[in-house]
Amino acid sequence: MRFKKHIAGNHGTRGLISAFFLLFSSLQAFAKSHPEVDSIKNLLLPASEYQKNPDTATINKLNKIASGYFKSNPDSAYYYGKKSVELSRKIKYPEGIADGLLETGHVSYFKGNTKQAKQNFDEAIAIFKSLHNDRGLSKAYISYGRMYNQLAEYKLALDYLDKARLICLRNQDEPVLTDCYKNIGITYFSKGQLSNALDFYYKGLFIALKNNYVTTSAEIYNDIGVVLQNMEVFPNALEYFKKAIQVFEATNNKQAVGTINENIGEVLLAQHKYDEAILYLTKSLKTAKQQDDKDGLSSVYTDLGMCYAHKSQILLAKSYLDTSLQIATKYQIVYNQAYALNGYATMYNLLSDYKNAYKYAVGGQAQAIKLGNISVRSNSALQLNKAMAGLGKYEEANRMLNEYINLKNQINDNESIQKLTSYNYELGFAEKKRQLAQQQRERDLIYQQKIKSQRLVNAIFSIIIAAMIVTVGIYYRQKRKQQKINALLEDRNSEILKQKTNIDDQAEKLNDLNVLKDRLISILAHDLRAPLSTLRGLFSLLQDDSISHEELLEMIPGVLKKLEYTSDFLDTLLFWINSQMENFEASVKNFSIKGLVSLEIETYHEQAELKGINLLDSIPGNLSAWADPNSVRIVIRNLITNALKFCREGDTIEISATMEDNKRIIVKVKDTGVGMSADQRDKLFKGKVNSKMGTKNESGTGMGMLFCKDLVEKCHGKIWVTSEPGVGTEFMFTLPAVAVAASAEI
């Protein structure tokens, strides 16, 4: 994993300048793939002309070419940027000097020459300030932010990027603001703050889609794919990577294609598909060599080393890892140093050489702490766990395992998954809205064309009438013709309105399906992974004899608690899914409320006693309802477990029921727990609430009340809640006392 996994924009280099006449033949192809550069005729301007009679227009063109070449030929970018600075100094053109310094500064810091890059950026900033050039100043601050992010100095990076953001907001400069948001997201990702990274990625993506910034949109798709990769949602990550690579291959952006090939390779490596991973990583390595990209070379060498280590080709693996660490150390790329050290630890753990594995894992952990990245720290903790267990240091190994689990839970936190789900919903809605607007514009254009045609017909018709006023018969025929055309237009307009209505209905249904799909995926991705990962880790430790019998006994209650929660959640989820079937009404029947509630209270009696909570059954024995008993059981279970979750020692939970108008039964679940705010209460049955931890740190999904509402309504009832913070909560729902069909007959 590396910073280059993200595509930060115009940066990257291959080293020293290339001769102009060697680049001359490639300019035409470059111009076709970069529409932002001027015409080919201007690009092919002979060097002798712009050196003999330089002017500001020529210098501006040179800087445009330099900026464009960062994505396909960094050698040329450095050449044209340096040439622009030389010519600008010659004619004393300060803006040309500053723009050229930005281009050469990119190359300098990417080759590890941060001292030279700082000099270039500082001089450019001073010039832009003196010229009151806000756009140039914001671009310079963004360049500084990229450099400090690569150096793992995140506070400085965010300070510079925030300066750029404020300038862009003040000037409503959306192109540069989009780039700024993207780079702020990259910096937060580097810090391991995925939730903040998603906020800024999607801010940039919405602007890019609105303004049709195709390349920038592709860059952010890649960045979101990296977040999904870290959350181990691999199919979705590959989907985002493939979206991005299609754009970059079409525009000949070699640097970006190389980056995404590495990202795909790392996903395949994580999925243990080593041969497929090597194919993608080899493509990325070829691009990194062509670009002389030190960051990229170091990272890809580590990836290849780990692939060959897993394939038991140790000599080849060690060779790649040695090269990676040498490059990362020489150019002070902290992230890649930690990544390479963890790669060594992985290799030695595979060889059961735990002494060496421990040495490299400790080094990787030190660099990871310096870096501050949660993903790298979690990998270091995992390798230390394996090495310590192999060395017989079981207590320390267990501590490292707990640290690894905690770090992985931070990466896959519920907030990030919910944000991703929410943003994907907004993104889908925005895209659909944009498509509908485009369709409407096309229909409007067709309509306007028809109106113009109609006006032409009217003009011709008027001329015919004026010329042949004496011929009543012809006038009559022309009038009938006009009436038919008007009728045809009215029919067409009616058809267009019907099509619009159908499209709106389809869009609404599609949005509903997407909301449900994304919500379920987020739950399955988060709430099922954590207990399964814990169980897998426990079995792995048992297999390796890494923990003692006493330690196993200490860990089992926590594991069972997570599995019990997961099992209950799956029961609820599967029953709710079954309830969506068309034959759901077939299970409706008369049943005793008392009997059903008594069974659920008996099930949770022990859990209530453990928390010191009084669980009371106040249901009369003579009440019968006409509904699906399994649905009611699921609702009662969810309300009881929810009350247990938010009650403290000494609190009381009471389940009661009353008959109302001899037609319906009101069931109440009342507790004296912590209660909830009005804002939480209003969101409770809409599936938008973020589940909070219980009084004993119990977790939840935030979906239980949504399931309850759906099941109660399918039983022809309704559900509502009253609550006050610190006082308690009372859930109430109704059920028919007799069959719905029978009630209608009465």
Automatic annotation (TrEMBL):
Domain (Histidine kinase): residue spans on this chain: 523-739
Signal peptide: 1-31
Reactions that this protein is recorded to catalyse: ATP + protein L-histidine = ADP + protein N-phospho-L-histidine
InterPro entries hit by this protein: HATPase_C_sf, HATPase_dom, His_kinase_dom, HisK_dim/P_dom, HisK_dim/P_sf, Sensor_HK_Regulatory, Sig_transdc_His_kin-like_C, TPR-like_helical_dom_sf
Keywords: Kinase, Membrane, Phosphoprotein, Signal, TPR repeat, Transferase, Transmembrane, Transmembrane helix, Two-component regulatory system
Annotated CDD domains: HATPase (cd00075), HisKA (cd00082)
Enzyme Commission code: 2.7.13.3
Top-rank lineage group of the source organism: Bacteria
Molecular function via GO: phosphorelay sensor kinase activity
TPR repeats: 138-171, 178-211, 218-251
Residue ranges of the TM segments: 456-476
Classification via PROSITE patterns: HIS_KIN, TPR
This protein's name: histidine kinase
Source species taxonomy: Bacteria, Pseudomonadati, Bacteroidota, Sphingobacteriia, Sphingobacteriales
